[in-house]
Amino acid sequence: MAGRPVQSKANIENIKKMNEATSQVIDPTPIITFVMRECGCTFAEIGKVFNITRQMAKTIYKNAQKEL
What we know:
- This protein is an all-alpha fold.
- It has a domain at 28-67.
- 63% of the residues lie in helices and 0% in strands.
- Helix 1 (12-22) packs across helix 3.
């Protein structure tokens, strides 16, 4: 298996539901991206939640990281 192994700590389906439920009030993408990455998710897994590329997930993470 090439690349970083996929983890199973984050419930991807529930995170998707949370994103959909809150996205009309705020944009939770940076917060969720940061938390998922810090919990061990790969950028590919994060990308699946938001339907974006892993590169975009990495960019969002890096931008969120700068804000902290």
